[in-house]
Amino acid sequence: MEVNPIEPLVKLSNIEIGYNSDEPLVKIPNLEIFPGEIVAIAGPSGVGKTTLLRTIAGLVRPISGNLEVCGVINPIKQKKGILGYIPQRLGLVRHTSVLHNVMIGANAGHNKSIGSIIPSKVAKKNALEAIESMGLSEKIKEPVRKLSGGQQRRVATARTLSQKPSLIMADEFLSELDEETMSMVLSKVTEYIRGSGASLLVVEHDISRAKSMADRLLVIDDGRINPFIREVTAMEVKI
Amino acid sequence: MISKIFSSKVFEILIKIFPLVIFSFSLWIFLGMIDDWGRLSGSIDNLFIFIEESLWPPDWSVIEPQAYPVCTTYPLFDFTCSTAWIGLIETLKIAFVSTVFGMILSLPISLFAARNLNPWWLSYSSRFLLASFRSLPSIIWAIFFVILVGFGPLSGVLAMTVYTVGYLGKLQYEAIEGMNKTPLYSAQSMGLSKFETAFHVVIPESANDLISQAIFMFEYNFRHGTVIGIVGAGGIGYYINLYLKFLQYDKVIAYLILIFFVVLIIDLISIFARSLFTEGRDMKRPTWLGVLLPAGLLKK
């Protein structure tokens, strides 16, 4: 997808999200995410961060309001390969190899793979590059279930990077990683975002980590019946 | 209102005595079925007379080569010309082929039947189809196919395949519905088509269950394959039916003992093979000794 640097990739206006129309989890008056931006959403657990991400991913319908993601209004099904989503529980196919899992993303991103069954050379190349960038080349044939939690997180990140999406949404994707691996993964993802003009929307419960990686930090406030999202300035972040 | 009823003390007591109510109800139905208790009192005597006069000892001539056609194999292997061997091998062939064909046919239907992948109308119509295959037992399907294509293993294969589609299909869609939802969410957000999701995510993720179920189905089909021969659909059941007609129960018991041992062997292999495809495989793979010996003996 061609990215227009002026048009926002994600546009939310007067939106209410949640699972119960009587009790929306989060209200968002206005939120826009532009190409090349890294936006972090922080807040205590159970406040609705993951639900917000899932709503943008088209997995949960908004209760009310308008949502536009990569040019699609209120998406239920996204255009193939546009959106890369790393769920908190990763969503990997546990019984198959690292390569199989990363190829799912690579095939989605490169439509010339025939029905995603016979992969194109480009898709295979993208997958191998992503695996190498995550330092998993030696584990390429290993079933995912045999990998450690941190390695599995890297597989999920490689799957998304090989897809080359316009918008990456990641839910606590740096947890379970040691400091060195975390900075390596973050630098590779940031490199992709800066180089491709894509956006990264990341959910992070650790506010200081969220602020260190993001261009903008948004916090969902707790302690209200209907928490709302607000932008936090650098002064407010307690490190 | 409803939540108050569920949380009430009366409801709690009702839940506790529910198994007793069910048992009392079934006992009441059973007692209503019995018109003459005297019929039960003579049953043990009848069993001993039957065993003594007709059943025991088994007539092992069933594992000797048949008089015609003349057996031309090496004498050590002449048991392969016996009716027992021919019948058992034919039953195994029927069970194997119908399991493979049944699995190939049931998998696409079960993918349509899974509620987590499809709209309700598609899932329920596919379930209706599978239920219709399953509603008739394999022996009724065998009678149906004997009428259509005549006696022999072909009608056996067709009957068992149809039943396998219905039975295995149900197991498969339940396994698919029980799979972890997060890989499906990832696939959906990536924009993968239903076919791509099924091919790359659903089948690989539930492959262990699907394989394990197919192995169980083979074992099940062998056991049922011994019965369908009675209506002329091939296999060892044909010979059992033949000797039942001539009241040669000593030969019938010999066949039944052989079937018992083959089922036991298949069962053991099945347990072992299925254990290779279950979750705990990486932690502890069972040994042959573990499969063959009772757990208590193994611990010692």
Give the helices and strands of chain A as they follow along the chain. Answer: EEEHEEEHHHEHEHEE
Radius of gyration of chain B (CA) equals 25 Å
Report the end-to-end length of chain A measured between terminal Cα atoms.
38 Å
- Catalogue the unreliable spans of chain A: none
The fold-level CATH name of the largest domain in chain A is: Rossmann fold
| Order of strands, widest sheet of chain A | 6-7-8-3-9-10
Assembly type? heterodimer
- Percent range for helical residues of chain B? over 70%
Q: Could you tell me the CATH topology label of the largest domain in chain B.
A: MetI-like fold
Structural class of chain B: mainly alpha
Number of strands of chain A: 10
Topology:
The complex is a heterodimer of chains A (about 240) and B (about 300).
Chain A: E1 10-17, E2 26-33, E3 38-42, H1 49-56, E4 64-69, E5 72-73, E6 83-86, H2 98-109, H3 121-133, H4 149-163, E7 167-171, H5 179-196, E8 199-203, H6 207-213, E9 216-220, E10 229-232
Parallel strand pairs in A: 3-8, 3-9, 6-7, 7-8
Antiparallel strand pairs in A: 1-2, 1-4, 4-5, 9-10
Helix pairs in contact in A: 2-3, 2-4, 3-4
Chain B: H1 2-7, H2 9-33, H3 38-41, H4 43-55, H5 83-113, H6 120-135, H7 138-149, H8 153-177, H9 182-190, H10 194-228, H11 236-245, H12 249-275, H13 288-292, H14 295-299
Question: Can you tell me about this structure?
Answer:
The complex is a heterodimer of chains A (239) and B (300). By secondary structure, chain A is an alpha/beta fold. Chain A folds into two domains: 1-77 and 165-239, P-loop containing nucleotide triphosphate hydrolases (Rossmann fold, 3-Layer(aba) Sandwich), CATH 3.40.50.300; 91-164, no CATH class. Helices cover 31% and strands 22% of the residues of chain A. Chain A contains six helices and ten strands, in the order E-E-E-H-E-E-E-H-H-H-E-H-E-H-E-E. Chain A has helices at residues 49-56, 98-109, 121-133, 149-163, 179-196, 207-213, and strands spanning 10-17, 26-33, 38-42, 64-69, 72-73, 83-86, 167-171, 199-203, 216-220, 229-232. In chain A, the strands form two sheets. In chain A, strands 6-7-8-3-9-10 form a six-stranded mixed β-sheet, with helices on both faces. In chain A, a hairpin with an 8-residue loop joins strand 1 and strand 2 (26-33). In chain A, helix 3 runs antiparallel to helix 4 (149-163). Chain A is globular, with a radius of gyration of 18 Å. The model of chain A has no long low-confidence stretch (mean pLDDT 82). By secondary structure, chain B is an all-alpha fold. Chain B folds into two domains: 2-52, no CATH class; 80-299, MetI-like fold. Chain B is built from 14 helices and no strands. Chain B has helices spanning 2-7, 9-33, 38-41, 43-55, 83-113, 120-135, 138-149, 153-177, 182-190, 194-228, 236-245, 249-275, 288-292, 295-299. Chain A binds chain B through residues 54, 57-59, 77-87, 89-96, 100, 103-105, 107-108, 115-117, 145-146, 159, 163, 169, and chain B through 180, 182-193, 195-196, 199-201, 204-205, 207-208, 282.
